[in-house]
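Students often ask why inverse folding is considered easier than folding. One informal answer: many sequences map to the same fold, so there is more than one right answer. In these notes we will look at a single instance of the problem. The structure comes first.
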């Protein structure tokens, strides 16, 4: 059955979720070894049966709440268009430095073009293995697997009624954007933004882009999103809006658990957020990290230093109560932040999802008045999300967090109220 597009519009982080884009992890995550895991941006290799069970509970909760689209299904739809199919195959091979002049891939273009759309979608995501491989070299695939596609947040971001195709900071993730360009141009039919078309050195990633309100973005600036990427969005909105703001939090470059803003800060509702305390207090790795309010007023862009992200929001009329990732113990805060303890995804106002392994964080939410619902109970019908004004849908995560992301990383909202 063909999937039908929905309207694209996200004007907040916490409006009632109506549609979301997911990628159920496939065999691409089994195509890593200890030799190439770091290159693939993983700190370890994953056990796929465990990933499948955990992801099934994660996606099962979402399927009971909203309209869920899956990347592979939509990709197969757009690959029915011959021009789109040819473009994706040519550009994918070019990106992976495979050309028809190379002896090992003579005829590969023709073989890929002859596949049906489902088979081709699978290969574009999971990779294409050499017919002959020596059993030792690290170069096993003519077309490399997209190891990180399960993190649908990063390579594309809904920004109001458009989609930002993100200019990725690491080559291993660049080809993801080809898929999203095709999906959003040819399936959803929306206008695209792309910082790299403005400046080839501009970088943005979706974990750093938070749609706070119709006139406010919160953004992270660090190893994945740089100042040029933020400048692109500032200049874009300066041309379109009389008044607009971007609140920017500088992030540590190391360790890798601080790659995006949503690893230390997420909106839980209109009046609540999840936050990593050292970021708020500017202590430890956040000592000296700037928080900057970029103000746009009738085309003029100005920059103001603010004490922290909460004070910056307060200056704009936002009163947020922070729930602290990891609770009150600074040692536990570090441990739970490492496994995406601050990375919550909002289904609606004060209706969120996150890993239940972060027990001190879940306890902090409990104390803040959030009812704790377990994914297994939601899926079985024992727990009803709609009967709770404030809840956290807690799903298991032993393998999934080791991939380097949480509930917000694995979701790309398409439509919110």
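Output (designed amino acids):
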């Amino acid at each position: 059955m063909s999937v039908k597009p929905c309207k694209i519009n996200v004007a907040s982080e916490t409006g009632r979720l109506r549609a979301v884009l997911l990628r159920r992890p496939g065999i691409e995550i089994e195509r890593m070894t200890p030799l190439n895991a770091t290159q693939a941006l993983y700190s370890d290799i994953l056990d796929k049966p465990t990933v499948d069970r955990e992801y099934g509970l994660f996606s099962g909760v979402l399927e009971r709440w909203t309209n869920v689209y899956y990347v592979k299904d939509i990709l197969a739809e757009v690959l029915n268009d011959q021009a789109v199919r040819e473009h994706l195959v040519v550009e994918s091979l070019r990106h992976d430095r495979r050309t028809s002049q190379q002896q090992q891939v003579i005829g590969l273009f023709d073989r890929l073009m002859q596949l049906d759309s489902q088979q081709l979608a699978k290969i574009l995501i999971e990779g294409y293995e050499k017919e002959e491989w020596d059993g030792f070299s690290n170069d096993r695939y003519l077309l490399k697997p997209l190891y990180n596609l399960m993190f649908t947040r990063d390579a594309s971001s809904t920004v109001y009624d458009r989609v930002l195709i993100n200019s990725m900071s690491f080559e291993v993730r660049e080809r993801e954007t080809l898929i999203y360009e095709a999906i959003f141009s040819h399936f959803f039919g929306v206008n695209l933004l792309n910082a790299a078309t403005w400046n080839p050195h501009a970088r943005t990633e979706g974990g750093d882009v938070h749609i706070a309100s119709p006139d406010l973005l919160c953004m992270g600036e660090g190893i994945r999103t740089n100042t040029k990427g933020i400048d692109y969005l500032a200049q874009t909105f300066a041309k379109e809006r009389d008044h607009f703001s971007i609140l920017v939090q500088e992030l540590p470059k190391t360790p890798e658990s601080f790659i995006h803003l949503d690893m230390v800060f997420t909106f839980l509702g209109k009046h609540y957020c999840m936050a990593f305390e050292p970021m708020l207090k500017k202590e430890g790795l956040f000592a000296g990290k700037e928080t900057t309010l970029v103000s746009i007023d009738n085309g003029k862009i100005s920059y103001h230093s603010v004490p922290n992200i909460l004070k910056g929001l307060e200056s704009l009329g936002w009163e947020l109560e922070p729930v602290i990732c990891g609770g009150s113990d600074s040692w536990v805060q570090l441990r739970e932040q490492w496994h995406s303890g601050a990375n919550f995804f909002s289904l609606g106002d004060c209706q969120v999802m996150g890993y239940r392994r972060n027990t001190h964080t879940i306890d902090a939410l409990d104390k803040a008045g959030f009812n704790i619902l377990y994914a297994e109970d939601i899926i079985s019908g024992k727990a009803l999300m709609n009967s709770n004004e404030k809840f956290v849908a807690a799903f298991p995560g032993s393998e999934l967090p080791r991939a380097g992301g949480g509930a917000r990383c694995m979701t790309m909202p398409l439509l919110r109220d």
